[in-house]
Amino acid sequence: MIEGKLKKTVKAFTDIVESIEALEILEREGISKLKAKLRLFDGSILWVREVWVQEIMEVYSYYWLRPDETVIIGWDNAPHHESAITFPHHKHIGERIEDSHERTMADVLNFIKLFLE
After folding, report:
1. CA 51/CA 114 separation, integer angstroms
2. How many domains is the chain built from?
3. Tens-binned pLDDT, residue by residue, of the chain (117 aa)
4. E strands of the chain, at which residues?
């Protein structure tokens, strides 16, 4: 299930994703976990982490890094920034925490694609 979703999403963004390095895919008893590294055309990297329970994504984090592995933007739903209007969804831009409406890998890849155009 989760590997298929990864491949389907990446296929929709072949114009910016050069390769996938799946680091961990675990599926058992209604729980799926994914940790992957996507290498983008400009040399940047998107680290992906998702946890699905009964086919509902419960936990996610997506961190977009420069080639030197410094963070450009990180998106996640860890419940530690209650000031975000979109709590628990938020993004890290430098030292700032901002509201986030990007909540899936496709949302984040679309954001990155538009940003790089």
Report:
1. 26
2. 1
3. 888 899 999 999 999 999 998 789 999 999 999 999 999 999 999 999 999 999 999 999 999 999 999 999 999 999 999 999 999 999 999 889 999 999 999 999 999 999 998
4. 17-28, 31-40, 45-53, 56-65, 71-76, 90-93, 96-99
CA 8 to CA 20: how far, in whole Å? 12
Whats the size of the chain, residue-wise?
Answer: 117
Cβ neighbours of residue 99 closer than 8 Å, sequence gap 6 or more:
84, 85, 86, 89, 90, 91
Q: Which domain holds residue 23?
A: 2-116
